[in-house]
Amino acid sequence: MNIGILTSGGDCPGLNAVIRGVVRKGIRAYGASFTGVRDGWRGLLEDDVHPLHVTDVRGLSGRGGTILGTSRTHPYSGGGPARMREVMERRGIDALVAIGGEGTLAGAARLAGEGINIVGVPKTIDNDLDGTDYTFGFDTAAAIATEAIDRLRTTAESHHRCMVVEVMGRHVGWIALHSGMAGGAHAILIPEFPQSYEQICAWVTSAADRGRAPIVVVAEGFTVAGEDDTPVADRGLDKHGRARLGGIGEMLAPVIEERTGIETRATTLGHLQRGGSPTAYDRVLSTRLGMAAADAALTGEYGKMVSLRGTRIELVELSAATEGLKKVPLERWEEAQILLG
């Protein structure tokens, strides 16, 4: 049996570890063969594929990025399912393992409904996919953001400044919540629970009054309560019409400075959170998800996504896993609020 593997959407620490897990498990346990699909759905639509051997995945568990390349090509462009079937038949590909986030797996669910043999692996630093407790890449992104907060704190303390740190996450606040709690932030601002300028400045002033250099961690999709509820997207839209979020930190900093009288600077971490080596946790999770995906593909469990439930890897329906965003729940926000100010 021959299994195609593709990585689609944004890059993410741990992608290579998944590929390694799929290939090693599939060859060692099942004697399967594998085909690498270059640049996500584009490679399948344009017949840009190549064989994947054990030697191709050596030493990949700690390597960032993806050896297969990635893109945001829509699976229903360039011929869609009919073209995919044609390429799969020509190349002898019996099933696909699609590694991606919300958009990739929504496309995979739709393709599965049209009869293409496919298994999904959840990937996103945003941790916003339903159907799994955590996605690989999230732990690395949160760790990078936490280290940045630690570093910014020392310069903030030296100059008695307030620092606003903008992190990724699109329309959910998991990275901001975890890095903010881990880094001891005095204000954590997430899309799920908009806050007013008055509340933000009250947290900042409370920290400054205790002799601290205030740290504000804000998710890129955050909006200020009572203001425009459209997230800041200074860079406009990408070629697929999706907003390029970012800029809320630069917008908040001068307002905080004006209202509190505390010199305030903003830092946007951006793609730093997506690059580099995955953490040990993400390496293990990625490898386990990859091995489970190999099992599912080679035993005919199509239309499913491998998922982390507690400490167990389970299978869930792709359609159910992509129905909505996994947002920060109220109890997690209430838990964090005790630490603010």
From TrEMBL:
Cellular localization per UniProt: Cytoplasm
One Pfam family from the record: PFK
EC number: 2.7.1.11
Pathway entry: Carbohydrate degradation; glycolysis; D-glyceraldehyde 3-phosphate and glycerone phosphate from D-glucose: step 3/4
Cited InterPro entries: ATP_PFK (IPR022953), ATP_PFK_prok-type (IPR012003), Phosphofructokinase_CS (IPR015912), Phosphofructokinase_dom (IPR000023), Phosphofructokinase_III (IPR012829), PKF_sf (IPR035966)
Residues that hold ATP according to the record: G10, R72, T73, G101, E102, G103, T104
Chain positions recorded as Mg(2+) binding sites: E102
Cofactor dependency: Mg(2+)
Residue intervals of the Phosphofructokinase domain: 2-296
Known catalytic reactions: beta-D-fructose 6-phosphate + ATP = beta-D-fructose 1,6-bisphosphate + ADP + H(+)
GO biological process, one term: canonical glycolysis
Keywords of this entry: ATP-binding, Cytoplasm, Glycolysis, Kinase, Magnesium, Metal-binding, Nucleotide-binding, Transferase
Gene Ontology molecular function, alphabetical: 6-phosphofructokinase activity; AMP binding; ATP binding; diphosphate-fructose-6-phosphate 1-phosphotransferase activity; fructose-6-phosphate binding; identical protein binding; metal ion binding; monosaccharide binding
Site feature: Important for substrate specificity: G103
PANTHER family the record matches: ATP-DEPENDENT 6-PHOSPHOFRUCTOKINASE 3 (PTHR13697:SF52), PHOSPHOFRUCTOKINASE (PTHR13697)
Protein name stated in the entry: ATP-dependent 6-phosphofructokinase
Species this protein is from: Sediminivirga luteola
Gene it is expressed from: pfkA
